[in-house]
Amino acid sequence: MIKTFTMRSVLLAGSAMMLAGSPAMAQEAAPPAPGDSDASANDMIVVTGSRIRRPDYAAPNPVVSFDAAAIAQSGNTNVTTFLQRVPALTNSLDNTRTAGNAQVDGALGQVGLNLLDLRGLGVARTLVLVNGRRHVASQPNSAAVDINTIPTDLIERVDVLTGAASAVYGADGVSGVVNFVLRRDFDGVAARAQVGISQEGDAGNRFASIIAGRNFADGRANLTLAYEYNAEDPLANDDREYLRSVNRANFVNLNGYDPAVAGSYQKGPLRDIRYPDSSTYGIVDIGGVRYRGDGRIYTPGTVLENDGYSTGGDDTPVAGYIGDIFPKTERHAVNLLGRFEASEAFKISLEGKFVQSTARTFSGYGGNYPATVTLDNPFIPPTILAAAQQAGLTSIDINRNNFDIPRRGEENRRRTWRGVVDLSGRISDHATYDAYYTYGRTDVRATKLNDRLSDRFTAALDAVRDPATGQIVCRSASARAAGCVPVNTFGANTVDPASYDYYLFDPVSNARLEQHVVNASLSGDFGALFELPGGPVQFAFGGEYRRESSRFRPARELVDNVFYQFDEYVIPTASSGKFDVWEAFGEINLPLLKDRPFAHLLSVGAAGRYSDYSTVGSTKTYQFNGVWAPVEAVTLRGSYGQSVRAPNIAEVFRPRTGDSGFISDPCYLGARGDGTQFRAANCAALITAAGGNPATFTNANNPNANVNIPGAVQGNANLRAETARTWTAGLVLRPLPRLQVAVDWYDIRIKDAINTAGASTIAELCVDQPTTDNPFCDAISRQAGSGYIDGYIVQPENVAAFRTAGLEFNASYQIPTARIGTFDVRLVGGYLHRLEQIPTIGADVEDNRDRPFRPKYNLTFSPTWTLGELTVNYNLRWQNGVRRFPRVDTADNPSYVAPEYFRFKELWQHDIRAQYQVGEAFAFYAGVNNFTNQKPDIGFETNVPISPVGRYVYAGAKMTL
């Protein structure tokens, strides 16, 4: 079993995480909790990655660890933001990437989520554990865990493990594991409070926590209660002057580009980018004359000929649609921890938690595309009315972007309950048992904000003048009785706020996710029977049962699509699904040699797991590893194994819903030579079977060539598990006292990865296989008599592949002095050698390395100086300037963009913090993050290479009694 340990154990055992070859980022050792029992210097520290108890320096897989002090010293109360400095976790999603318009595909329930993405392979492939156990998911139909559900001040350490983790922990860890180890055995009272704010006076943060615990029954029992509160103010795009409409620069296709002319570039930065043929004033076309909504002649912007934008004029500014950069968040977390040791043979521990997290964000505005208004509407300006009457019209259409109606938004409230009951004990001097049950539940309430009810907004647009009073009112008497206030869309900022209550509506959707886990294991050694030259053979084996379920119930108003025009881009569908899995697992470690010449330590090990899923059937995972330390100061380690990821609930159980899209048929005469050697013959067979003529099968002859084809989207019950092959190799050096250096290489290949291809891609996959007897052809239907595509089904398939490889470097050196204190210097760096994706079978390799959030090089340099009661921390976070554009765009095109714009600026984030200890009970600290005030580079990515919050100051106090 995995053994947790106290902060005092860390101090007495030395640099525990560093000895594992992956130095902790801690720059300050938190004071031990009062009442902690003295630990022996020989206590065995067990790190993440194995159920076998072994010294951490003998761990075969690279584990990068960060302790509570490192998190506190960063000034981050958001743990995900702190973990993004880890080379393996730079692509993780914090609040800035799940706010405003950053939400993916308009799906409900994403606002404010903090999701870890290990190795850039996706949040679905990152296994998040708490005390070595699974945690209930936070997003409907997925397995993704919101890090907001893990209380910051209860974290003792965070382990980031690379290796074939599925053999130890089960599915989903194809890229590795992030394990949060929580504090235990707390005796006393500890409290912390912190406030922070940007130099602009916004993006405020408030944090408070209190932990109270007591040991009793002669130290054999403990009860700890912890409460934590965290609130963050929103930050909107317009809160930063350089991001506002006129000042914001974006890269667009430039007019006048000529590749034959030196110094002419296809793309370049322009400010004041706008959407052509749209306006916040409104646009009315009458007889070829275009009027602005307020009656003036419309001034169009300068259209960018090869792009979908314009500059200047009365067009709508793009920046107005960016929305929030940070959402408004508030989090309450209550945790209850208890344990009782009846004897060495029977120990019981309990964990209970409740976390409520609320996040609210606003994105873009709605509009009328168009709204039809009759000529008796009194809001129509005289110039437009006269032109319409002269043209013999009875009504006019006005297109308008409504910047005077509140932005659309979403508020998500997540409530998470989790409980653990664990029984453990010693069977003999050579064996221990551990059995636990975990239950978790997340309830999500997703509220869409400021959607316009179609019938009510239409009634508010239909304004007339009341002949009795002369006042402008809604035409419908029933609408007036219901509170209708007329809406004027002629001109900018003309809508009366009193009208909002009548037609704005906030539909509420709900979801519930549940998890049950039962696990029992036995671990120990065969020392009672025999020993190898390096010691007794160690083992661990056991079984696990897990059941996951998810249910999503969208608001009836969303399903019925009762909202005005484009207020809802995605119509959600009710869904539900569940699966269970039975598993058996085992590990063994063979210590071949110990304390011999050229073999201070030599061991090999293996782990395996057999799983039987109700969805994908059986899977097998394994790992082989070895550790060799020829001398005490040098350790070589490596591992090789296979991991799996079973498809999540959405990928299997999503119900079929309608869809439509444009399809480029790969069987057109001009496209048959673009695919594999099988395409031409397969196309001829399909067209002939449908009654068409392959010789005349062209785009020109297809009557539906330029229209959207009706189709469907659904889950896929026939999915297989993804498979990853991972190997790691590392070197750990301890050449001097208090100096540790570790270098580890990793290589991960994933095949049969699950991906949802578009309809055109599915049509290509159908005919590019050796035969047409494949699932892709089953998803494409062709019209009888012609053979042209007339329908499709889009669903996830095992068609993708990934590969990533790189190197991580970790070093720590502590320098104690007699007079000027102690210096603790730490360096963590990463080199991303490759990050490749093949989205579908036969597709070109996509190189995602050296792109935003996936830098080729990064490092964190963190020196600490301690002198008496004063501790000063400095942190430098650096990343190379990543490519601004995908390689496919810039390949063989030297005039794509000017050289100075090819890359984003490098990240240079400087943080500093000072703490002063007042006696044993109190400490006060203050810090500045990004004290050089580096700003994001120009472009759509508002947080590359750094967040727009700018210079950020914070201060806090800690109490320990």
TrEMBL record:
What GO cellular component is one of the record's annotations? cell outer membrane
Q: Where is the TonB-dependent receptor-like beta-barrel domain?
A: 409-930
Which residues constitute the signal peptide according to the record?
A: 1-26
Which key words tag this protein in UniProt?
Cell outer membrane, Membrane, Receptor, Signal, TonB box, Transmembrane, Transmembrane beta strand, Transport
TonB-dependent receptor plug domain spans which residues? 58-177
Coiled-coil residues are none
Q: Which InterPro entries match?
A: Beta-barrel_TonB, Beta-barrel_TonB_sf, Plug_dom, Plug_dom_sf, TonB-dep_rcpt-like
Task: Report membrane topology.
Answer: Multi-pass membrane protein
User: Which cell locations does it reside in?
Assistant: Cell outer membrane
Pfam name, any one:
Plug
The keyword Signal is annotated on this UniProt entry = yes
Gene3D superfamilies noted in UniProt: TonB-dependent receptor, beta-barrel domain, TonB-dependent receptor, plug domain
UniProt cross-references to PANTHER family, sorted A to Z: PTHR47234, TONB-DEPENDENT RECEPTOR (PTHR47234:SF2)
Q: Which family does it belong to?
A: Belongs to the TonB-dependent receptor family.
Report the protein name in the record: Outer membrane receptor protein involved in Fe transport
From which source organism is this entry?
A: Novosphingobium chloroacetimidivorans
